[in-house]
Amino acid sequence: MTATGASTGARIRAVRTERGLSLSALAARAGVGKATLSELEAGRRNPTLDTLYALAGPLGVPLAALVAEGDDVVGDDALTTTRLHVRHDPGRTTEVYLVRVRPGATRRSPAHAPGVREQLVVIAGEGVLETAGTTTPLAPGVHHAWAADAPHAYGCTSDVELVAVDVIVTPTGADPVD
Q1: What number does CATH give the domain 3-65?
Q2: DSSP notation for 58-94
Q3: Under 8 Å CB-to-CB from 170, ≥6 apart: which residues?
Q4: pLDDT tens-digit profile of 16-74?
Q5: Which residue range or ranges hold the HTH cro/C1-type domain (predicted)?
Q6: What is the pTM assigned to this prediction?
Q7: N or C: fewer beta carbons within 10 Å in the chain?
Q8: What 3-state class would DSSP assign to 29?
């Protein structure tokens, strides 16, 4: 267990409690095992990026609300994200990440909270973005924006990492995903 896991677990528990959700209710909404969620909240397990995204949607919060300041790098088998900036303005939270998708990997993201918008600007590599039944080719210089309150995915189709800047804008007070 790392300090990252313990601080993230505490944040998950605090937001869940603030939302009035039981451990069982959040686990069911997020598609996460109740035992897994319990271990995360207790700081006995490190969260994966998949789990954090799965929990953020039903809680109606941006990913940044679950990851402590200073815990800026989160990754999984498909990608590594580095948080570059978080800005809280009246009505919205904007998160900026540098995303690196490994060659041949695809990152599938569950729906974010209602009203969330996402933008991707490709810096290097090639790949595809799947949103709302549409596939968009990705290459350096390509910019694409979409409603991120539906499942979406980006994958690397080149022999080098797909590197992109990902901007996620979450309305303040976004309703949790049921």
Answers
A1: 1.10.260.40
A2: HHT--GGGTS-TT--EEE-SSEEEEEEEEEEETTEEE
A3: 61, 62, 92, 93, 94, 95, 112, 113, 115, 116
A4: 998 899 999 999 988 889 998 998 888 888 777 778 878 888 888 877 778 766 555 66
A5: 12-66
A6: 0.72
A7: C
A8: helix
